[in-house]
Amino acid sequence: MSCFSCFSSKSSRRKRGPVPAAASHYQEAPVHAQPENPRRVSAEATNKKDESKEASNNIAAQTFTFRELASATKNFRQECLLGEGGFGRVYKGQLEKTGQIVAVKQLDRNGFQGNREFLVEVLMLSLLHHQNLVNLIGYCADGDQRLLVYEYMPLGSLEDHLLDLSSGQRPLDWFTRIKIGLGAAKGLEYLHDKANPPVIYRDLKSSNILLDREFNAKLSDFGLAKLGPVGDKTHVSSRVMGTYGYCAPEYQRTGQLTVKSDVYSFGVVLLELITGRRAIDTTRQTGEQNLVSWVSTFPLSCTTNLRFGAFKLV
Ligand SMILES: Nc1ncnc2c1ncn2[C@@H]1O[C@H](COP(=O)(O)OP(=O)(O)O)[C@@H](O)[C@H]1O
Ligand SMILES: [Mg+2]
Which of 15, 32, 248, 307 is spaced 20 to 30 Å from 224 by Cα? Predict the structure, then answer.
């Protein structure tokens, strides 16, 4: 991981990136301060029988040439476009060699922005394997091209089903909402409690919860993930990164990152699942634009205790 410090990471990206903070006394921790052997993440995380089976089934991420991925996505044709985020565009494609349907994320090439996130994502997803994390099939680092190849998730993201409903699209039923929340929670539990050292995801939001045909949830986008504190440490210091509206206020204020920062974001996603509203929605009237602030105007008996990621609806 120490090689990451060779790459700069600017983040003038849409949607996610540095989150404005009240204090400025913290810095992104030098990556070489992280535990030296990231392979422990998968080695020690596979204690349980079923998990070790999962891990042993995983082959290391494959490398692809740019030509292979251009041909898989019909030259990144508009009709293959699945979506666009802070990192770049995502296309549906079919690998020529195997016929497998995949999702190909092409990183924006503006001055190598996001190269660090690219490396973190490849490393993290090569080491972490769980049924509620998206599977990385491979990557391409041809010249200045950076692409990631994932398993294709046919139902897209939670955002597509909860917040971006087209006319005629039926809202998710309660059972499905709970199923998705549970899947996301299991993915997070694996990162926090089973991976060793723990992994802080830092970008939990509805657009990063992808869905398979049965609405099983898988967490995606590990470019901002960070190894959590080990030993006596209670937190890791970090430049504040994430997505506005999902970022824990204490992390935003102090730059001190703990697994609880993810739990806060999980609480925001739960609120989105319950209300069908966006974490931040500037089209709404003042007072209702920030979901957490709006919810906290309701009586205590029916509000969410986001600080602990738990909620009680009466
Ligand atoms: N593996 C995948 N399978 C299917 N669709 C995907 C996959 N990865 C991403 N997408 C789609 O592409 C969109 C953009 O993804 P991404 O670049 O991660 O940005 P963001 O998470 O900020 O929306 C997602 O919201 C989702 O709809
Ligand atoms: Mg995403």
Answer: 307
